[in-house]
Automatic annotation (TrEMBL):
Pfam families: FMN_dh (PF01070). Coiled coil: none annotated. Residues 1-365 form the FMN hydroxy acid dehydrogenase domain. This is Alpha-hydroxy-acid oxidizing protein. InterPro entries: Aldolase_TIM (IPR013785), Alpha-hydoxy_acid_DH_FMN (IPR012133), FMN-dep_DH (IPR000262), FMN_HAD (IPR037396), FMN_hydac_DH_AS (IPR008259). Keywords: Flavoprotein, FMN, Oxidoreductase. It comes from Neorhizobium phenanthreniclasticum. Belongs to the FMN-dependent alpha-hydroxy acid dehydrogenase family. Its cofactor is FMN.
Amino acid sequence: MALLNVEDYRQEARRLLPRFVFDYLDGGSEDEVAVKENRAAFEQIRLTPRLLNDVSVRDQSVDWFGRRLPTPIVIAPTGLNGLYRKDGDILLARAAARLGIPFALSTASNNSIEQVANASNGDLWFQLYVMNRDFADQLVDRALAASFSHLVLTVDVPMGGKRERDERNNFIMPFHFRPKTIADVLCHPRWLWNVGRHGAPAMANLATATITDPNTQAALLSRKMDASFDWDDLKRLRDRWPRRLLVKGLLHPADAERAVSLGVDAVVVSNHGGRQLDAAPAPIEVLPGFSAVKAPIVVDSGIRRGSDIVKAMSLGASAVMIGRAALFGLATGGEKGVVDVVGLLQVEIDRTLALMGQRTFNSRS
Ligand SMILES: Cc1cc2nc3c(=O)[nH]c(=O)nc-3n(C[C@H](O)[C@H](O)[C@H](O)COP(=O)(O)O)c2cc1C
């Protein structure tokens, strides 16, 4: 089957992955209302073209802190990327480097900070979960030493969302294979070859860390963060990390203003792809409310089309993050699959700009 759009890649990923892996990738929390709303909110936005402009040459590149990105796309931080391909984090980082876009490595990655830095020469961002403040400090220092350019603090996981698909599949940590799961795996020989035969992927950042607290690994595996982390801790993090700092997971403009007043460089308006608070609004819906925030706004959750990215940029975003779209590419075709998915989004952006009568993201008339 020709893979013409992100949904085609999703269907292909569904075919190739064992059920428990696909459900972990694709699912959301509770009734998955936020997952559906994220899509519905994009689909309801209309773009009104302004025509008779010369759009024979288009340029979708954007400025990001004085640097040119070829397209306003960042690969979002996602945990357990080794479930789709061996060394999934490295493959994503290499794909991003080939595309000239940033890749954000999750705290819950299966390749370590150092492995990814050694394997890629692209722009690397590190996403921080704070389970334990000492361990978080170690991670920050390691990301600094490994030349990561941005730190992304995710703040919408004081507790893990209730992922009922994972519970039904018994995909909860520590993971134990049940007969049903073994049958599922045996029905997916390509996955078994690419991933399963290497065993369960490890939380690589923990494996190489010098942490004394044995609860930290369990906390990361079950997404149990330090729920006492607050604005004062953010201030301390700002002091510790000298490069660009982003806060990810805000949905209220007042929180964004406060973060920026503490020296945060940019904000990611996100509901975690509908995987945390199921009653959260769609980020694209609340984005216009962030217009007074004096910092770049990145938006994510639900982006599946180039036109979604044009919509986000029209509503004030400086860039977007893509989570599942990149992972569908990874699951389907490894590094090349990621390059193909982002390439497809770029072609869709280009066509949408032309049909909108827009040469660039700044040339709206
Ligand atoms: C499988 C999966 C794992 C994720 N893991 C993390 C993570 O470790 N850290 C984080 O900040 N966000 C994580 N996210 C959220 C993404 O960074 C991003 O906000 C979300 O995927 C955007 O929505 P989209 O998937 O609809 O593009 C994860 C999302 C998915 C789908």
